Amino acid sequence: MSRTYPKRKQINRKAILLAHFGTSFVSAMESLENIRHKVQEEFPDAEVRISFTSNMIRNIWSARRRKPEKWLKQGVPEDVLYVQSFLGAIGSLQSDNYRTIVIQPTHVYHGEQYEDLKSYVTALQSIRTIKKVWSPFDTLVLSRPALGTYGIEHDYLDDLEEVIGIVQHDVQRAGEMGAAMLFVAHGNEFFSSGVFHEMLHRLRERNPGTAVHIGMVEGYPGVDEILEDLQAAGVGKVFMKPFMITAGDHAHHDIDNDEPDSWRGQLENAGIEVVTEMEGLGSNDDFARLFARRIAQTAAYHDIELANRKPGGVLHS
Fold this sequence. Notes:
By secondary structure, the chain is of the alpha/beta class. The chain folds into two domains: 13-107 and 111-144 and 284-301, Rossmann fold; 167-244 and 246-279, 3-Layer(aba) Sandwich (Rossmann fold). The protein has helices at residues 29-42, 55-64, 68-72, 78-81, 86-95, 112-125, 156-176, 194-206, 223-232, 249-255, 263-269, 285-301, and strands at residues 13-20, 47-52, 98-105, 139-142, 180-187, 212-218, 237-243, 273-276. Helix 7 crosses helix 8. The radius of gyration is 22 Å and the shape is elongated.
């Protein structure tokens, strides 16, 4: 006589998890909130949560939780003050019966933070339970950073062109003020920054009348190489912006401050006039909506219906 087992079914809610690098600067929080708001606008019925992938930044917020009122009074969102790691946020979602999750990184490119995130997701996707019904997740998928990544799911050159189209306005502004355009990215000392050089090549092709440069706080080219290039080209004025999701620690400490070893300080000491705009990419509405499109594309590729999008919305799959 064969045994029979009752059919069981778990609740399977759907959610979006934004995986930010994070920031400790209250003034930079607006960029992350803008991304969240643009995603929520396009998926009004979806659960949207955040996590910070940077261990150092989470440690800063952990220490600040000793005096929560101080930070909440400054307008810091409660889920930032009590921000979770990626694994912590995933665990919380799973405990709340969100078993179909689209993870959207807001990292600029496929560097160390994205690679680690990808490793976590791959490990979670590999979980196999004896009874499939008790699997912690139904569908767990990882979307792409702003400048895309390798693979056949989506052509990274399309992602690159999309970003170029958004920042083209800044290059035009530099040209109008008679300056060279200088973007300063975070960079990485462990991964190639080749995609930035591809972006630079495309921007120069589009803007033959304006000098365009992209430097890295970490990695190549750094401030020394950029300064050498600017001097060799006889550049007398630059329009400098961080090519980072938030204008946080690096923007205010490494790029634009009165210290002589900052990027602005070194350029000014070399006789170059510097106009700065310390605004994170996430504060740009078009850039923030880019992540909503990434989510829509990733969800469509994996046959996930997240929510009914508004008629006339900006999303295209």
